[in-house]
Amino acid sequence: xxxxxxxxxxxxxxxxxxxxxxxxxxxxxxxxxxxxxxxxxxxxxxxxxxxxxxxxxxxxxxxxxxxxxxxxxxxxxxxxxxxxxxxxxxxxxxxxxxxxxxxxxxxxxxxxxxxxxxxxxxxxxxxxxxxxxxxxxxxxxxxxxxxxxxxxxxxxxxxxxxxxxxxxxxxxxxxxxxxxxxxxxxxxxxxxxxxxxxxxxxxxxxxxxxxxxxxxxxxxxxxxxxxxxxxxxxxxxxxxxxxxxxxxxxxxxxxxxxxxxxxxxxxxxxxxxxxxxxxxxxxxxxxxxxxxxxxxxxxxxxxxxxxxxxxxxxxxxxxxxxxxxxxxxxxxxxxxxxxxxxxxxxxxxxxxxxxxxxxxxxxxxxxxxxxxxxxxxxxxx
Length: 381
Known about the structure:
By secondary structure, this protein is of the alpha+beta class. The protein has 13 helices and 14 strands. The protein has helices at about 45-55, 120-130, 135-140, 175-180, 205-210, 225-230, 235-245, 250-255, 255-270, 280-290, 300-310, 320-330, 335-350, and strands at about 1-10, 15-20, 30, 35, 65-75, 80-85, 100-105, 145-155, 155-165, 165-170, 185-190, 275-280, 355-360, 375. The chain has a five-stranded mixed beta sheet. A four-stranded mixed beta sheet has the order 4-1-6-5. Helix 12 (about 320-330) crosses helix 13 (about 335-350). The protein is elongated and about 85 Å long.
């Protein structure tokens, strides 16, 4: 089916709605919502923001769009996707082809002599007026910055890039590729060990982090010694860790040893990013964002849905279908994407001064890397 979108735009006071006056058929001379065609391979939300900006000059930095409803026309073989949003503040509009005009909500939108849609516009406006258009996200994230959250995945790294209010999900083979694309950023958090202990006197944040997520402590793996990370075989790694830290190595730790080494080599070879790229942990971050530990497993659909719901407080247009589609496209696990987005949100909060470091006064490893995790600060009402 062909897909088109229509966007119901309220002004900042929510007493006017933006319409365009059609200059050609269908509905020539009548008022209709702004919108247009969804291109092949384009996500619904991205298409809505694109059409809105092309027709009015309104961008993601001006408005948060929410999915309102869909109408399927089987005879015409098309779907109309409706979105609704409220301007953060009134602004000068830039029209494309169709003249655009603000109309008061007191209009008779079912008047077929003035409005398109065979009286559907009246119904759509009534539904849009009842939609809870929370503007809370404006106060939560800074839409004028570039913040990155990264999680390891099979074959590389998943990066969630939150730039000027727009979220992108990208896959890279190695850390250097991410930095090549984004050499400058406001904050960068990664779910990977930074700061490797070389002796038992080195204190990492893992114990403190586990205390923040009772019931989910198994998600924080034991960190190997620096000596173990740089051994070549599994037997040599286990022997080195027992000798230095008097501990063996779990399978989960062994599985990410190569990525630990890759990140450690990169940071020590690029001192400008040392202690600038910082370690975090998604489950600890979700607990802070949620106000309590999230006990569901993120690999389950319900667990993923719960985490997406938490993230929607910060990125309202985030949908689980978008994450599932991206996972299929990038050949990664959906929970890798969810974790990366969580860290991008946390990076944005931390850049605003709304983050915590655990411990508050971290130790450095032998190469000067701080052994810490950055997580959201506790929200105080």
